[in-house]
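This week, think about what follows.
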Amino acid sequence: MVETVDAVVVGSGPNGLVAAIALADAGWDVLVVEASDQLGGAVRSSSADGWTTDHCSSCYPLGVASPVIRALELERFGLKWAHAPRPLAHLLDAESPAAFIDPDPERTAAGLAAEHPADGEAWLRLYEGYIKIREPLLRALLTGWPPVGAAGRLVRQLGSLAELGRFARFMALPVHRMGQELFAGQRGRALLTGNAMHADAPPSATVSGTMGWLLAMLAQDIGFPVVQGGSGRLADAMIARARESGVDFATGEPVVGLTVNGGRITGVRTAAGRTISVKRAVIADTSAPVLYDELLPSAIIPAGLRRDLAKFEWDFPTVKVNYRLSAAAPWTAKDAHTAGVVHLGGNADDLVHTAADLDTGRLPGAPFLLVGQTSTADPSRSPAGTEALWAYSHLPRGVADDASADKIAGRMDRQLERHAPGFSELVLDRQVQRPGEFEAGNAAMGLGALGGGTTQLHQQLVFRPTLGLGGPRTFVDGLYLGSGAIHPGPGVHGACGWLAARAALRDAAPLGLLTRRPTSALLRRLQA
């Protein structure tokens, strides 16, 4: 039987759920089709024996900061955020004090000034500048494409053409250079560089400073919160919000093809033999390769787009290790004990070398680790006196085999033992998540890459995911890409789904033809 709906959303990650909610709120009949038996995409957790484990995403500074997520009022559906006493500590080496971000900017500054007197004031100036432009900046990044109106407000907030030019240069800096310009000591530089590595941005790459600066400022502003009770509670709240708006769901049904007639999307086919006729739109919360190489008919893919897709670059494959510890990690750096997130892997210069290893196909001997102490932030995650802790690191692009994953996981163990002697003796249970397991659980995570593609400049803005217009529209009328594969990229902020839904609603409006046809024509010319 063929059923008909206004719109199908393929995939139920945060972007897909945001898109479905936006369309349903506008009165559309919306069906979300999910390949997995569980909704939520990469936002999922599980609980057993008093322990709760986040299986992919875990810390949500962008989720709290995003105007898109805030507008959903998910607290009405049980969402609660939990914060560690300190958002972040960065461990420079096993003997030195940690760099840290404290909820009080003055305390953060004092920690930096203890190494070099000028660095405390430098941090406060940096944070003051961020606060001045925070709202227009976040709206420009997360609520519109192209961000003309919000960008105009950002320019007015900066105050002058000269300040705009300085800000543009600042955003273009590699984070390694940015740290050198801002801080005399190693601690401030490490805070920025660790956050850039957190965002899959090599420290010597152009605009990696933007990534490091934004995440560091978000950590100072709102922290690195986790969801009370596990990440799955965030997905649960979004699903409840979607059901309130009338969204329907189909789980355990992989979409195997999209039907296109006369240049327009007309239907969706599932592995179960189900055919869904679509009156208005399909939004794909999928990776770009899945959409263009697997779901669309091969014969209609423009030659230029096919050539560009051959150059598509994933972000680094991820290896994640989940630990159950009988007690808190025995860090030698005291400021790490109360941090929700711990970065370790050396100073800013060390991280340049680590990134170079990844870029040249070598497994780092001392990998950079992003560590989440979830019980420190949310005591409900494990029995009293214990710690549910995870750590993740990366493999070089193209290296995603289990043997390499196990090798880097062993090096991660040694890094933790080096910075927290006795760590291994506290391990009650250890689970390794390898790149193949990430991809098997969610096809959008190609080769275990969690970000939908590298966030480097050559695959951002109008180059994301390939040369085009940078937004959600595709060469097929009524088909929109609404995942982290489009601007603004990865992160649980919902912006990609929101932008896709906005484009669909605008194109379906009475005057939508006036904007849709020129845009589609230009996109086809660019991808021919």
The radius of gyration is 23 Å. The longest strand covers residues 275-284.
